[in-house]
DNA sequence: AGAGTTTGACCAGTC
DNA sequence: GGACTGGTCAAACTC
């Protein structure tokens, strides 16, 4: 038996998508898109804050000379329905934002830079356990200027 | 191939 | 001193 017959069975060398792969891909295709703010961010962490029952993602500006950070927070919904996403900016940018609203979608070559993959992140849960004490700290609650 | 993303583990601060 | 939380890093994975 054995005798690796040339391409064995589950060889995903180049073209061989298994159901699991497709499932994974499909799962991955469901990502949360954050509103573009004109800056490029790199996600470096995500955690679930059980205290508030919300997810929190951590982003950092991609500029080498920029240390601005961004924090995205949203409620956890098992229905797949996300509440409102609150974005908190920390630090200041030492550069002007380059990405802008209009003038995007322009590619001489069809490099498919489509804005489809602008800001897509996967939602997952991190288990946090233990709720005993309560802490009171000025939870900055930014209010909107106006509804 | 590379950049960007994902996820668990680690660290620090707090009580 | 231990326990818990929030924040960050790094390896692994994806595209
Ligand atoms: Zn910046």
TrEMBL record:
Question: Mind telling me which Gene3D superfamilies this protein's record contains?
Answer: WRKY domain
Amino acid composition bias (Low complexity), ranges on this chain: 99-116
Superkingdom field? Eukaryota
According to the record, the signal peptide region is none
- Full protein name: WRKY domain-containing protein
Query: InterPro entries attached here?
Result: WRKY_dom, WRKY_dom_sf, WRKY_plant
Q: Which GO terms describe its molecular function?
A: DNA-binding transcription factor activity; sequence-specific DNA binding
SUPFAM superfamilies named in the record: WRKY DNA-binding domain (SSF118290)
What organism is recorded for this protein? Dipteronia sinensis
Q: Name one Pfam family in it.
A: WRKY
Q: Where is the WRKY domain?
A: 30-98
Q: Which UniProt keywords apply?
A: DNA-binding, Nucleus, Transcription, Transcription regulation
Annotated spans, Disordered: 1-33, 96-116
Compartments in which it is found: Nucleus
